[in-house]
Design brief:
The protein has 592 residues and is an alpha/beta fold. It contains 24 helices and 16 strands. Helix content is 41%, strand content 10%.
Length: 592
């Protein structure tokens, strides 16, 4: 079978896209000059007319609260609508962080940040950028998972577009209801597989909203260019269907032709309304749809699946960085996965492609260094007839094994990766076994949220007697073992997708190619210094994420130009500086 990434079936490469579909439009046009102006230049707070008075205070894009100057209060009819005191953005930030830290429950912090985003956009992003390590677990995993579970109860104002079966035949009209015309990134879900929490239906909207907040905060894509979308085709979650506060369609999930037709109408409408260069990121679709959608649209649209491709890219970066700690080349290591869904097979395929690229060996051969365990045991050739299509490339010759522990003992992997969505499956016996034949085993427990992680950081370090190199999908606190403090890494997709998306935007890319994902991985791995290795970290700290995203964007853009998939010409001389210059700044602007 051809590579899941490179060909996804027996179709042509993305480089052989259909010219009939290649109408280049959309992009990053800054109509009002807001993003190209320097911070000390005056900008006009346009909506459909000049915002002023009460409407200006209710417009999150331009509201500054007490930071409006005396001159601005006179010019924009704000006298009497605000208390007489004025405040700097820095003081507002300090006050809000003090307030947020008072909350003991993470969901309360999430709701406070959501309210801020709906009230004062620039202050929200200033908070998130300046306090990224503290707030990332709130706006993203693990707290966003709980927010999705309770979305119906905490719902205040709609963020993004809801497209349901009721809108069939009218999706283009629905897209035109969105006030922004120059959309750069769409994150879309159908809510069927939210993190490791299962089918949350319409309440999965928390995921696109959270992802796009990170596109802006970490990748610098302007907020007005981001559009979260939930496609509601029902839910099979009985508890939600019986919940009086559920906000979605109260019916079982639609499947088959009706589902495919709705998605096809959606994809066509997006291209018609926003052009060729809008990024469509598929998020948290169930396995049976995720692979089909990526295969179907990757040659006609600029599509990216973060669960398959983003996860793969960030994990590959961690593995490549780890080589500097444990030695050897990628091809000398043996990989065992628990979980053979979107994340597991996606990571496995990208690792196989990287080994193939480095060793000039066919990918069919490099796959043989990678083994996967699913709910029925080790994936072997005797099971091939009963396997789903995306699992078949991983069915190698071996006697059947029905559990992870025996698979570890038989395969003897140097790298153990969990993407099963099932918590505490890396047991004491499993960790001890993989540590028995590795001086420094790499253990990645990637499932989200924290409750679904295959093991905790403390378990990994304790059961391996402090020898494991550990990273997880959700954050864990540092662990002290035998007098030494171990800092667990976080294999978080947020390292990759914001910078990856920015690279597509600044190059005007019209398709995603596998080599762009490899370029992103190599860039991230290169950001890990010896200083971090000494602490056991295989990923850099998030405090440097904007710089990291700029370098990833530059690498991705360079690969797009090299492959002939970029449309923004001429190519900028210094892509890193160009990426940094394109990044959104949340600092308040002065109004005329």
């Amino acid at each position: 079978m051809e590579s899941t990434f490179k060909e996804l079936g027996d179709k042509a490469s993305v480089l052989d896209f259909d010219p009939k579909c290649a109408v280049v439009g959309g992009g990053v046009e800054d109509i009002y000059g807001e993003d190209t102006a320097t911070e000390d230049q005056l900008v006009t707070p346009w909506t459909y007319s000049v915002a002023s008075g009460y409407s200006l205070l209710r417009d999150p894009q331009y509201n500054k609260g007490l930071a409006f100057t005396e001159k601005e209060r006179d010019a924009h009819y704000l006298r009497g609508l605000l208390p007489p005191a004025t405040s700097s953005q820095q003081l507002q930030e300090k006050k809000l962080m003090n307030s947020i830290r008072q909350y003991q429950v993470p969901l309360q912090k999430y709701m406070a940040l959501t309210e801020l985003q709906e009230r004062n956009e620039r202050l929200f992003y200033k908070l998130l950028i300046d306090n990224v390590e503290e707030l990332l677990p709130i706006v993203y995993t693990p707290t966003v998972g709980e927010a999705c579970q309770k979305f119906g109860s905490i719902f205040r104002r709609p963020q993004g577009l809801y497209i349901s079966l009721k809108e069939k035949g009218k999706i283009l009209e629905v897209l035109k209801n969105w006030p922004e015309r120059t959309v750069q990134v769409i994150v879309v879900t159908d809510g069927e597989r939210i993190l490791g929490l299962g089918d949350l239906g319409c309440q999965g909207m928390g995921i696109p909203v959270g992802k796009l907040a990170l596109y802006t905060a970490l990748g610098g894509v302007r907020p007005s260019g981001c559009l979260p979308i939930t496609i509601d085709v029902g839910t099979n979650n009985k508890q939600l269907l019986e919940d009086e506060f559920y906000i979605g369609l109260r019916q079982k999930r639609t499947t088959g032709k009706e589902y495919a037709d709705l998605l096809d109408e959606f994809m066509s409408a997006v291209k018609q309304n926003y052009g060729e260069k809008v990024i469509i990121q598929f998020e948290d679709f169930a396995n049976h749809n995720a692979f089909q959608l990526l295969e179907k649209y990757r040659r006609t649209h600029l599509v990216f699946n973060d669960d398959i491709q983003g996860t793969a890219s960030v994990v590959l970066a961690g593995v490549v960085a780890t080589l500097r700690l444990v030695g050897g080349s990628l091809s000398e290591h043996k990989f065992l996965f628990l979980g053979a869904g979107e994340a597991g097979t996606g990571i496995a395929e990208l690792i196989a492609l990287e080994i193939s690229k480095k060793t000039k060996t066919p990918v069919e051969e490099t796959r043989k260094k990678i083994w996967l365990v699913d709910s029925k045991g080790l994936i072997v050739s005797s099971r091939k007839d009963s396997l789903q299509q995306f699992k078949k490339p991983w069915a190698h010759e071996h006697e059947p094994i029905d559990n992870l522990l025996d698979a570890v003992k038989a395969i003897k992997p140097t790298v153990l990766i969990g993407s099963s969505g099932v918590g505490r499956t890396f047991t004491k016996e499993v960790i001890e076994a993989v540590s028995s034949f590795n001086e420094k085993p790499l253990i990645l427990a990637l499932s989200n949220p924290t409750s679904q992680s295959e093991c905790t950081a403390e378990e990994a370090y304790t059961w391996s007697k402090g020898r494991a190199i550990f990273a997880s999908g959700s954050p864990f606190d540092p662990v002290e073992y035998n007098g030494k403090v171990y800092v667990p890494g976080q294999s978080n997709n947020a390292y990759i997708f914001p910078g990856f998306g920015l690279g597509l935007v600044i190059s005007g890319a019209i398709r995603v190619h596998d080599d762009m994902l490899l370029a992103a991985s190599e860039s991230l791995a290169g950001e890990v210094s010896e200083e971090f290795f000494e602490k056991g970290l295989i990923y850099p700290p998030f405090s440097n994420i904007r710089k990291i995203s700029a370098h990833i964007a530059a690498n991705v853009a360079a690969k797009a130009y090299e492959l002939g998939l970029a449309t923004r010409l001429p190519r900028p001389e210094n892509l890193v500086k160009y990426a940094e210059s394109c990044m959104y700044s949340p600092v308040y602007r002065n109004y005329r």
